[in-house]
TrEMBL record:
Keyword Nucleotide-binding: no
Annotated source species: Ogataea philodendri
Protein name stated in the entry: Mitochondrial intermediate peptidase
Catalytic activity, EC: 3.4.24.59
CC per GO annotation: mitochondrial matrix
Entry cofactors: Zn(2+)
InterPro entries per UniProt: M3A_MIP (IPR033851), MetalloPept_cat_dom_sf (IPR024079), Neurolysin/TOP_dom2 (IPR024077), Pept_M3A_M3B (IPR045090), Pept_M3A_M3B_dom (IPR001567)
PANTHER family in the record: MITOCHONDRIAL INTERMEDIATE PEPTIDASE, PROTEASE M3 THIMET OLIGOPEPTIDASE-RELATED
Length: 765
């Protein structure tokens, strides 16, 4: 309830504003927003960055919080050193325990009416620590901080289990929700959160009798531990290199310039399975058997990984059986948009039928590269994909070889995002001065999201440059979400709350809200360019990634609600990716890209012909990518299907591959490298589902004018601003002006899935 479900969901006023005019010139659509270019300069111009960064001498990675006069990481005064994180956790747990005792003891009518609000306050205290620790564990370069965060995380989850199985809290919530006299004084948002928490209590075993509760806790612990181990090792392979027998290797098979990376033995050639070498061989090697062996080795997991996955699935099936569900998928989806595994399967099957002809067309193009005309689907295998793609694209190259990334410096792209948001939402990204100890690494930039109407609506820390210790990227973290702070919380004698509220609150009318604090994490490489400068230049794929993550950030900031349980991205898993996937449509629109893309050295605008040439390469095999996601989503449903404890995940995977045929893999154990099976168990379809909805919204609101302020306000006010406080089906129905979708039934799923063409991309955070 308190984190693992309600709070860790992926895991955010209608105003009259003049329509911003746009200029259509040679097929391009440009916003007339005037900007001072500071968002660009703070990344691309070292002199500008000096004005905003901490001016003291550079410190080693991870030691920026230790400095004299430190304000603490994220301006949290507790976070000046690892011991401070432990103290923050200890103080938060103390407050949480005190509040727990208080709200259980208060049986007055007033206390009962405040019960849901107080549960939400309790949740917020815990989430501020948990969300922070999740960020520190994957992004902080200082091992001492990482260790402290891991310890705090464990402490918090111990307390979570106490709350999740508290009979007193569960029964009291049930009383509040079923008493007509109490219900009539609750707001719709409070009722929504109350129902959400009640469902989470039940999922946590409170509806179970006897040993059921303890069994639930034990199974949950097994799932968490096994799932974390599974996630940690998804990039591991059975062997670090693969032997290619001498008899298979002809001169030139293993690529020019790779000799120094290969080890020749009496038996053959040892090829490493990491780095650029295996991918280069897959791309260039004409020997199909060599490609098959390398690809298979790269996609074969360690046996212990397969065993972990089997255990994870069995534990989940046992958990579902505890609640008399027919499958873990049924257990997971009952409160999601899709509602049932049957609806998901129908959606996936319909989508696969619609996409299949376009997949076959793409395969015909690939087949022509080697004059293959018949049995395309069965003949082309996954180890052929890179080779045939490279062969086809090499024959399609135009006379230009110019690298398009020269037009997309990191600063240029961030400025383009700022200008876009200013046009459609009236919100600008403004660089802010970094205070001593506020950041965890010297290259992190701080931005304020500034609204024309409301001032600062959120803080974004952009940790975008490569660092070897980042264990998860790209990613979006909500360090502190938006929620209303009530007068009774603002005790002037409470030093703990006052410390946090001085830097994390904002006023809206007469109300005080927590100011959302966001961190975006990527691993973009800066490199030396002509003239000796260091610049970070992005590919089209990386531009999409940054747009995608910024979509999550805007949802977190604009989803301002009174209660934190439904703030920003705290919404159903199969709805949370919608705003970020919608941003990918902007990132692919040539009018948007041409409005800001400039050569980092000359300032010349990006030529339309060059953009279209690279976009054609970038979107090559998009429908095959979509079909691959359909296969993975279907596999996810199969593994989390009927209650059967004789499970062989590799056999299940290969059966699904055989059923769908396209790029069929019948040799590897890749399923044990499919990390989303833990984080998105039974819900991997969410990416495809949200892409379908995003396609509809793009066509309805932005396809004619991606800079429309009127339609930007519609999306902001009808979708983003609600966070998770309303039924997503109602939000989708309202923004698409299709009231029949509000039911969210089988017919609504069918109607949404009637999409002739959707594109899958690599962004999936």
């Amino acid at each position: 309830m308190f984190v693992s479900t309600a709070f860790a969901r992926q895991v955010c006023r209608v105003a009259t504003v003049d329509l911003r005019k746009t200029v259509f010139l040679a097929g391009r659509c440009f916003s007339n927003v005037q900007s001072d270019g500071l968002a660009k300069k703070v990344f691309d111009d070292p002199d500008t960055w000096k004005q905003y960064r901490d001016s003291r001498p550079s410190l080693p990675f991870g030691f920026h919080n230790y400095t004299s006069g430190s304000v603490g990481m994220f301006m949290n005064p507790y976070l000046k050193r690892p011991s401070g994180l432990l103290e923050f956790c200890k103080e938060s747990l103390l407050r949480a325990r005190q509040l727990t005792v208080s709200i259980i003891a208060d049986d007055s009518a007033a206390g009962l009416r405040q019960y849901i609000k107080n549960l939400d306050r309790l949740s917020d205290i815990l989430c501020r620590v948990i969300d922070l620790c999740e960020f520190v564990r994957v992004a902080h370069p200082n091992k001492a901080f990482v260790n402290a965060a891991t310890e705090c995380h464990k402490e918090m989850f111990r307390f979570m289990n106490e709350l999740n199985t508290s009979e007193e809290m569960y029964l009291k919530l049930e009383r509040v929700l079923t008493d007509p006299e109490l219900r009539k004084d609750l707001t719709l948002e409070e009722l929504s959160v109350g129902k959400l928490l009640y469902a989470d209590f039940q999922k946590a075993g409170l509806g179970l009798a006897g040993e059921g509760k303890s069994t639930y806790v034990e199974l949950s612990q097994h799932i968490a531990e096994t799932g974390q181990q599974f996630s940690d090792d998804v990039y591991e392979v059975e062997e670090n290199e693969v032997l290619i027998p001498k008899s298979l290797v002809n001169k030139g098979d293993l690529g020019p310039g790779l000799e120094s990376y290969l080890h020749v033995t009496n038996k053959g050639v040892l090829v490493p399975l990491f780095g650029h070498v295996p991918m280069e061989i897959l791309r260039t090697c004409p020997n199909r058997e060599i490609r098959r062996r390398i690809w298979t080795a790269m996609h074969t997991a360690k046996p212990v990984q397969v065993k972990r996955l089997s255990h994870l699935i069995i534990y989940r099936r046992l958990l579902a059986a505890q609640f008399q569900y027919n499958s873990f998928g049924e257990y997971q989806l009952s409160d999601k948009m899709a509602k049932s595994p049957e609806n998901v399967r129908r959606f996936l099957e319909k989508l696969s039928v619609e996409v299949k002809p376009e997949v076959e067309a793409e395969l015909r193009v690939l087949g022509k590269a080697v004059n293959l005309e018949e049995n395309l689907i069965k003949e082309i295998r996954p180890w052929d994909r890179e080779f045939l793609s490279a062969l086809y694209l090499s024959r399609q190259k135009s006379s230009t070889t110019e690298d398009i990334s020269a037009y997309f410096s990191l600063g240029t792209v961030v400025q383009g995002l700022s200008d876009l948001f200013k046009s459609i939402y009236g919100i600008e990204l403004r660089p802010a001065k970094v205070q001593p100890g506020e950041i965890w690494e010297s290259t992190v930039r701080k931005f304020e999201a500034v609204s024309e109407e409301e001032g600062v609506v959120g803080i974004i820390y952009m940790d975008l440059f490569y660092r070897s210790n980042k264990t998860l990227n790209p990613a979006h973290f909500t360090i502190c979400c938006s929620r209303k702070i009530y007068p009774e919380e603002m005790d002037v004698n409470d030093e703990f709350n006052l410390k946090l509220q001085t830097v994390q609150t904002t006023q809206h009318g007469n109300d005080t809200f927590q100011l959302p604090v966001i961190s975006l994490v990527c691993n973009f490489q800066a490199e030396r360019v002509e003239g000796g400068e260091t610049k970070c230049l992005l590919s089209l794929s990386q531009v999409e990634t940054l747009f995608h993550e910024m979509g999550h950030a805007m949802h977190s900031m604009l989803g301002r609600t009174n209660l934190q349980n439904v703030s920003g991205t705290r919404c159903p898993t199969d709805f949370v990716e919608l705003p970020s996937i919608l941003m990918e449509f902007f990132a692919r629109d040539e009018r948007v890209l041409l409005s800001f893309a400039r050569h980092h050295k000359t300032g010349e605008p990006l030529p339309l012909a060059l953009l279209r040439h690279h976009q054609a390469d970038h979107s090559f095999l998009d429908k095959c990518e979509t079909f691959s996601q359909i296969k993975m989503a279907f596999l996810d449903q199969e593994l989390h299907g009927k209650i059967d404890f004789d499970i062989d995940p590799v056999a299940c995977y290969q059966q699904v591959e055989h059923h769908f045929e396209v790029f069929e893999d019948d040799v590897s154990s890749w399923v044990a490298k499919f990390g989303h099976l833990y984080s998105y168990g039974a819900m991997y379809y969410s990416y495809l589902f949200d892409r379908v909805i995003a396609t509809r919204i793009w066509e309805h609101l932005f396809s004619k004018d991606p800079y429309s302020r009127v339609n930007g306000d519609k999306f902001k006010n009808l979708v983003l601003s609600w966070g998770g406080s309303r039924d997503p089906w109602e939000l989708v129905a309202d923004v698409l002006e299709q009231p029949e979708l509000r039911k969210g039934d089988v017919a609504a799923m069918e109607q949404l899935s009637r999409v002739a063409s959707i594109d899958a991309t690599s962004s999936s955070s």
